[in-house]
Amino acid sequence: MDLVLTTVGTKVLETLVDQFLQVIVDAKNKAVQYTDILNQMQKRVNSIAPLVKQIEELNTTLNRRNDEVEKLVDLLQSGQSLVKKCTEKVRWWNCCFKRPSYAGELLKLEEELNRYFQEIVQLQQRRDQMEMLVKINQIHAAFPGTGGYGGCAVPEAPKFVVGLEVHLMELKTRLLTSNGTRMIIVSASGGCGKTTLITKLCHDEEIKGHFGDRIYFVTLSRTLQVKRIVQRILQQTEQPVSEFQSDEDAVNQLGHRLRKVATKGMGCCFLSVPTLKKFKLNLKQQISPILLVLDDVWSGAEAFLENVQFEIEGYKILVASRSVFPRFGCTYPLTGLNHEDAMRLFHLAAGLRDAETNIPNEIVEKIVKGCKGLPLALMVVGRSLCSQPLAVWKKKEQEWSSGSSKLGTEEDIFNCLRMSLDVLKDKDPIKQCFLDLGCFPEDQRIPVTGLIDMWEELHGFDGDGVSAMDTIYKLCHRNLTSLTLVRGNANEVDNWHGGQFVTVHDLLRELAINLGSQKEDGLTERLIISIANGNFPNWWKDQKLHPTRARLLSITTDETFSSEWLNLEAPAAEVLILNFQSKNYTLPGFIEKLEKLKVLVATNYGYSPTELSNFHLIGSLSALRKIRLEHVSIPCLGKFPTQLNNLQRVSVVMCKIDAAFKNTNLCYVLPNLVEINIDYCDDLVELPEDICELSLLRRLSITGCHNLSSLPEAIGELANLEVLRLTSCTGLEMLPESIGSLRKLTVLDISDCLHMDKLPHQIGNLHSLQKLYMRKCLSLQGLPESMANLQQLKEVICDEERANLWRTFERTPKIKITKEDINLNWL
After folding, report:
1. N or C: which end of the chain has fewer CB within 10 A?
2. CATH code at 255?
3. What's the N-to-C CA distance of the chain in angstroms?
4. CA distance 620 to 652
């Protein structure tokens, strides 16, 4: 009798295993003469099933076939038929004749299962590699230049929430109710917890169970960019994203794609068509509900909201906005916290413990009442008063009592947040660093490495990032920022922060811009300029003002910018931040006159890598010490007119860099380079040989470059190299033997180098090596004996499998086994 299964998703193998095991149990009860063989068979199937099921699910995610799974399906199917024959055709009157025949067949099947089980180690490795491939595919789908930018995964769930339980329940009921309401708008003023509420809702188990992986979370900005929003949503549908002819075309393609997602065939995509036909596995069509979450929607977005209300069964839209859109019907007004919850949240923020505090309760009550139940105000004000003396609390109480701080309008909230900074002196590095955060675009993550570049020059922080991180933690402690670790390769112990980002609430960003632009004696430390639709600020167009004395200059342009610059006199500028979105971008001609410029940060927030023009102007910046380029195509460095003698650190992220090294003498152009960071540059296949001539280079980090296939054989000539990171270079198969000449190397990181199957014998000559990272080196099955010579090696950070490789050595360093927590919210 043929097996007929109606299945959804990845239940085929699970069902086959369950049925086979049930057949074995029945056979043991009826054919006791085969008990020993059947017991062994049952044991083997039980042990292998969970592992293969994992591979099955990963194959579904990767949309590819898996011969091992099909082989097991075949064995299980054959096994069922054979075991049934044993119970149906062997009876007491013919067991003498039939038993030997069927026993032989059962033993043959058991041997086949045994051979299959002998491949279990390779199978486990395949599972691990496929898990990594899934992660890599998700990363590629999240980057422009590697497949997209900025994805729309749900942000990380808040660590704790207070007073939102009722709102969560009510919203969840509305979303899960099958009625005519397609769009729900959560409306409240800034700082009321809208984003916290909808994020927490998306992490609710019932919501996740209902919508599955079809929750698309997008944060909009004040300037609505329809094509970019649609691109970010489409990336998560795992289909190619094309260029759009217009906003209307983008919306039409979104509707078409979401309809396909909603009616996607929920079948056994990990099995081939012949296998499906062989076992008559039926594909079942069913509607898959979709949830589109639009956060931070501004007034003026009515047309967009109207256009995305597609007629799709099970499709819901959740909107969070400061505005009310009455024409769309269902509005959910979010109110402030009640007094009890407000007190609880304030106590948490202010670090008050009733049994220990000397702050009178009546003072706390007045301040909490003044915050009007707004979570952001409660958190920021509470943190600003944490550990402060009683006199500061009394001053804050007087402000509330005078009525100057009580909250009613959004402007009142803004003033409240402003006054929470009054406890910091103007020259306090914490306050100054907070004001610097206004130089980055709205609703964008701020890379910690970029902040370190800036703050080392502006505020005299040390060069290892310790002071910068200390400041970030203090800002987080005051709830002025949030710090997110989005990749496992960030490690503060080794001063590597490549996976860390800072985010700032919109109101707090506005506060930073407002305070940072205030002038003292007619001067300002920061000049923040936003150019939309080609409209320059009037003061810039007039050309009548004196040269700006700002040390920090930030210029943001939109996708319509034509790169036709006006002249700007900024002789005091030490840091220049350029934020842009257009496909082609010309560096402003005035930068060659910025004689004091020490840091250049150029970031493309658009979808495709930006082609840079006027790049040769950087060669005239004689004082330049650090440069960070993100998501751009870097032209040839050989066109620089002069040497950049002061440039010490170069960081390129998601860039096209192949052309940069052609016909370029790096040693001549960048003679004093100390640090190179190359992150997720997918066109990097091999490093240029002359990089090995950078005699002062101390840190070389190449992370997430999956197409990098080899390192220069002469890499051992980098006599001063102290840190070498090759994290997630999945195409790298080996290290050159010359690596043993890196006598000053203290940190080596080859984590997630999936195809590196051996280490060079000369690695034992790294006599200064103190720390070795080798997590998830899945192909590495042995270590050279010379590693016993690494007398200074103090710690090895690796997974369980690689830890076993060290047990053959008489002397072993400290082994730290890590279970990597991959957080893909950065996508």
Report:
1. N
2. 3.40.50.300
3. 48
4. 20
Give the Cα separation of 609 and 589 in Å (integer): 21
- Res 487 pLDDT > 60: no
- Overall pTM > 0.90: no
One domain for residues 487 and 552:
no
Q: What are the pLDDT digits (tens) for 250-304?
A: 899 999 989 888 876 444 444 444 554 444 444 444 678 999 999 989 888 889 9
Residue 185 sits in which domain range? 165-333
Asked if 183 and 54 sit in the same domain, the reply is no
CB-CB contact of 718 with 742 (8 Å): yes
If you average pLDDT over each of 61-70, 232-241, 459-468, 693-702, which comes out highest? 693-702
In the predicted model, is pLDDT for residue 105 greater than 80? no
- Map tokens 């350029």 to a residue: 578
Provide the mean pLDDT of the chain.
Answer: 80
Q: Distance between CA 426 and CA 434 in Å, rounded?
A: 11
Pair (174, 282) in one structural domain = yes
Predicted pLDDT of residue 46? 74
The answer to whether the beta carbons of residues 195 and 231 sit under 8 Å apart is no
| Contact assessment for residue 304 and residue 224, using Cβ atoms and an 8 Å cutoff | yes
**Calpha distance 116→71 (Å, rounded):** 9
Report whether 87 contacts 30 (CB < 8 A): yes
547 within domain boundaries: yes
The alpha helices in 439-505, defined as continuous H runs, are 448-458, 466-477
Give the orientation angle of helix 429-436 with respect to helix 448-458, to 10 degrees. Answer: 130
Q: Are residues 529 and 477 in the same domain?
A: no
Residue 823 belongs to some domain of the structure:
no
Task: Domain count for the chain, please give it.
Answer: 4
Euclidean distance between CA atoms 495 and 576, whole angstroms: 24
Q: One-letter amino acid identity for 213?
A: D
Of 683, 700, 721, the domain-final residue: 683
In a domain, 373, yes or no: no
Percentage of residues of the chain with pLDDT beyond 70: 78
